[in-house]
Amino acid sequence: MNDFPVLTFGPTPHTPLDRWSFSVDGAVSEGRRWTWQEFRALPREHIVKDIHCVTSWSKLDTNWSGVSLDTLLDGIELGGAWISAWCDGGYTTNLPLADVTGGKAWIVDEYDGAPLPSEHGGPARLLVPHLYFWKSAKWVRGITVTVTDEPGFWEQNGYHDHGDPWKEERYGVAFP
Ligand SMILES: Nc1nc2c(c(=O)[nH]1)N[C@H]1C(S)=C(S)[C@@H](COP(=O)(O)O)O[C@H]1N2
Ligand SMILES: [Mo]
After folding, report:
1. Which of 54, 61, 65, 106 is most deeply buried (CB count within 10 A of its CB)?
2. Ligand 2 being an ion, which residues bring their Cβ within 5 A of it?
3. CATH number of the domain residue 132 falls in
4. Is 11 domain-assigned?
5. Is 153 a member of any domain?
């Protein structure tokens, strides 16, 4: 796990598992919330994917385990087309629902068969491997479904709103 860089804005939060929960709220027919134990009991998937950081490194065949966003959103009626992921520590990032549903995004809590280290987002982080890695919010605690696109931390600070590595969507128009 020391073989890929730690890139964090601000200090690493350490939320104890008995105070951890994951929520889905916002423009939804009903909000949901899972404790750590409830989250661990959800159906999980193993994910092997390449990841890409905007600062040019990539890492091939990274190995994760976690719960698909499809599972977390299952049965909820969605009244918006975007999500805002929010985290311990205050980080946020925005994504179109289309980029996090259909087998494209997970809340992961294991890397290489071990609990996700806190510097890499443990207990759990968002994993959206097909977009630049700043979209993969560490220490994620919930997603809020939004009716309009609401730029998150890096998106307000010069990074591209969408962040597709294959289109090299690195920086937004306002980048100085
Ligand atoms: N909560 C939070 N998530 C975050 C960040 C952050 O500063 N805070 N940085 C992002 C950026 S820019 C990158 S490249 C990746 C880095 O993940 P890593 O530290 O596991 O390599 O996390 C993303 N998720
Ligand atoms: Mo990054």
Report:
1. 106
2. 7, 53-54, 134
3. 3.90.420.10
4. no
5. yes
* Total domains in the fold of the chain: 1
DSSP helix/strand/coil, 63: strand
* Helix intervals (H) in the chain: 36-40, 69-73, 153-156
Please indicate, yes or no, if residue 4 is contained in any of the structural domains: no
Q: Could you tell me which of 58, 100, 63 has the C-alpha nearest to residue 80?
A: 100
**Residue 67's domain spans which residues?**
21-167
Q: What is the pLDDT of residue 176?
A: 43
Predicted TM-score (pTM) of this structure: 0.96
Tell whether 172 is covered by a domain.
no
Ligand (nearest to CA of 129): 1
What is the pLDDT averaged over residues 69-79? 97
Question: In the structure, which protein residues have their CB atom closer than 6 angstroms to any atom of ligand 1?
Answer: 4-9, 53, 87, 89, 91, 120-121, 133-134, 136-139
Mean pLDDT of the region 156-176? 83
User: What does the pLDDT look like over 108-158, one tens digit per residue?
Assistant: 999 999 999 999 999 999 999 999 999 999 999 999 999 999 999 999 989
Q: Report the pLDDT value the prediction gives residue 55, as an integer from 0 to 100.
A: 79
Cβ of 61: how many Cβ atoms within 10 Å?
A: 8
Distance 134 CA to ligand 2 centre (A): 5
Which atom of ligand 1 is nearest to 140's Cα?
1
